[in-house]
Fold:
Amino acid sequence: MTNNVRHFLTDLDLTQAEQTEVLDLAVAMKKDKYGYKPYAGPQTVAVFFDKTSTRTRVSFAAGIAELGGSPLIINSTESQLGHKESISDSAKVLERMVSTIVWRTYAQAGLEEMAENSNVPVINALSDDYHPCQLLADLLTVREHKGTLAGLSMAYLGDSANNMANSYLLAGVTAGMHVRIAGPEGYLPAAGIIAAAEARAAETGGSVLVTTDAAAALAGADVVATDTWVSMGQEDEKAQRMELFRDYAVDAAAMVHAAGDAIVLHCLPAYRGYEISADVIDGPQSVVFDEAENRVHAQKAIMAWLMAKSDLADVAGVA
Ligand code: CP
Ligand code: NVA
Structure:
C-alpha cells in the first residue's frame, strides 16, 4: 500500500505542468490505443453512478478495459453506498478490492470523504460543483484543433454557476488560457471559485473575466463553450431556467462576436434550440464529437497517471 495516493477531485488537483503531462499521455494513448496496461492482471476499477450518464459510463468502461482492467459499473440504487453504509466505510472496503474508485455524485464533500478514507485513487466523474474529467477531454480537443492552450481565449456562456462553468474556469486558467464566463446575475461562479481561478491564473499567465455581458465574453474568443441550462437534479426548475438564460445562447448571432476560426465545445447531452442552436452544434465550427471521443483518451490518461504517481503502477511517460 502507498501513502502517496493521488486523487482527481477538482480541476485544481493538477498543476499546469501535471495537466500538460496528463494531456501528453492522452495523446500517446490515443495513438497507441491498446499499448498501455497499468491495470493488467486484470485489476478492477469500480465506477459508481448516483446520476444518469451515457458518455461517462461508456468511456470509463471502454478505457478501463483498454488499460487491461475490468470495469465494474454500479448504479448507486443497487449498492449500499450513501444509503445503508457510510462513505468512509465504503472507501475502506473498496480500497481492498479495487485499484481505483470513480464516482459520479451530487455533493463534492462526498468525494472528499471517499478520498480521505481511500488508499487507492478516487476520481470525480461529475459532481454538482465540478466535471474535471470532461475538461481534460475538452482541453485535449482544443489542443488538437488549435495546437496549443496557453494564451488562447475561451468563452463559456449560460448557466455559469454550474459544474461545467467552474471546471472551464479552473482547468482553463490552469492551462494558461484567458477564460471568460458569462451568465445572468445570480448564476455566476461563486466568489471562492473566482478567487481560486485568479490565484491559479497569476501562476500560469492566464486570466479571468466573469461578466453578465455575453458579447464581451465572446469578443474574439478562440473557443466558445456552453452546457445545458438544466443540470441533473435541477429538473423541477426547468421552465424558469429556460427563460433565465435566453440571452446567453450560443447561436449564429452570438458566434459573430467570436474569432472567425473559433471552435465550439459542448460536453453533451445538448438541447438544440436552447443553450445552443442546431446550426452551430451541427455546423463546421463544432468539435463536439471529437470532444466526446476524447473522454476515453483523457480518462485513460488520468487513471494511468494517478496510478503511476501513487506508486501503484509503472507507466511509460510518467516520471
Ligand atoms: N458529458 C457527460 O458527462 O455526459 P454523460 O452525462 O452522458 O456522461
Ligand atoms: N451540467 C450538466 C453536465 C452534464 C454532463 C449536469 O450536471 O447535468
Observations:
- The chain has a mean pLDDT of 97.
- DSSP finds twelve helices and nine strands in the chain.
